[in-house]
UniProtKB/TrEMBL annotation:
Gene3D superfamilies: SGNH hydrolase. This is GDSL esterase/lipase 5. The chain crosses the membrane at residues 12-32. InterPro entries: GDSL, GLIP1-5/GLL25, SGNH_hydro_sf, SGNH_plant_lipase-like. Keywords: Membrane, Signal, Transmembrane, Transmembrane helix. It comes from Senna tora. Belongs to the 'GDSL' lipolytic enzyme family. One of its GO terms (molecular function) is lipase activity. Pfam families: Lipase_GDSL (PF00657).
Amino acid sequence: MEAESRRIPHQGYVALVLCFGLFVSTFCYIVKPCLLSRSNHSSSSSPPALFVFGSSIFDIGNNNYINTTSLNRANFWPYGETFFRYPTGRFSDGRLIPDFIGEYARLPVALPYHNPGYQSYIHGANFASAGAGALVETHKGYVIDLKSQLSDFIDVKKSLRQRIGDYETAKLVSEAVYLMNIGTNDYAVFVGKSTKYSPERVQEIVNMVTANITEVIKEIHKNGGRKFGFLGLWNLGCSPGNRQTSNESSGSCLEALSLATKWHNIQLSMILQKLEKELKGFKYAHTNSYDLINDMSDNPSKYGFKEGKVACCGSGPFRGHNSCGGKRGDQYYELCENPNEFVFFDGIHLCEKAYKFLANQMWVGDRGITWPYNLRELFED
Ligand SMILES: *[C@@H]1O[C@H](CO)[C@@H](O)[C@H](O)[C@H]1NC(C)=O
Ligand SMILES: *[C@@H]1O[C@H](CO)[C@@H](O)[C@H](O)[C@H]1NC(C)=O
Ligand SMILES: *[C@@H]1O[C@H](CO)[C@@H](O)[C@H](O)[C@H]1NC(C)=O
């Protein structure tokens, strides 16, 4: 009896010590980085911030907060069905590339910049807006174009200076990584879906789009940004939507849009090589998604998919019609059972599994795909 009654409190004491130890270590683990990041956010314990510019491919829900239409929104089911299990505004069944990059960089889960509850920019901000282009005319009035995203960034910088001072802000901005993918909507609007086109006109638009992107890169650099990650455009002419427009039975690609996106990537890659020589401290990672997504479409099983050309959600022979969710005019749409088997989720956008694959290629992809640095090198630099 006596031994028994002694053993019980003893065990209780051990359990208490263990519990306390666990509590202290958990507390330290969770709270200490926060405390550190308040007082000395850019110390080695806090990863570089991530600033994101772009369109629906990167938009984690900014368009939920602006005046636009359901064409530029994905805040309804089945968007978000697999990972979040509710629609967040992301154009996919689950997470997008910036979500994965943030995760690989050990950054906290990001909220869209335009979410009124989001005001601490210590870890960066996502300014991307579905439907947006590098040209202000693209879907004007319904999206946050690239120049306005740049203004948002400059506002963030002002707010940071008020909170953490000039020195810490300059440090945060120069150590941060700037992720960008834009142009698809400019080509969709200004090159269009016509099968007749003039290559000279396509080249002209490519020059205009890439020149506007260059201006924004230079402005970010002038504001202290140094490390840039670019996701090249994938072949817009071969999206399920454009295959369906081109020829419902063969699903051939729309040549003008294939050319526009291909030339865009070539032009941007030449510009980046030039900027690397011109701009002090400028470093970048450029990911060739064009060849990769073409190969994923043609050989889906090589990448663990079953279907590379037909979308998971939409209507028509390639489910390329932009009706996923039934809120964009047409109520009828089909939905696949398992998005993990599909490269494309809707007529334009990819499924989470394909985005995850791309994010990985941006993070640690070999030089044939991501060049001259990869994102991990930029974050660790
Ligand atoms: C939103 O856009 C619609 C259509 O363009 C317009 O009628 C409405 O006044 C706008 N609302 C605000 C708050 O700007
Ligand atoms: C940027 O785009 C506008 C059209 O939105 C165009 O007028 C302008 O020339 C472009 N900028 C450059 C540097 O090409
Ligand atoms: C569409 O593709 C089918 C099958 O390859 C072909 O027979 C037809 O001529 C094509 N239609 C057009 C308008 O190109």
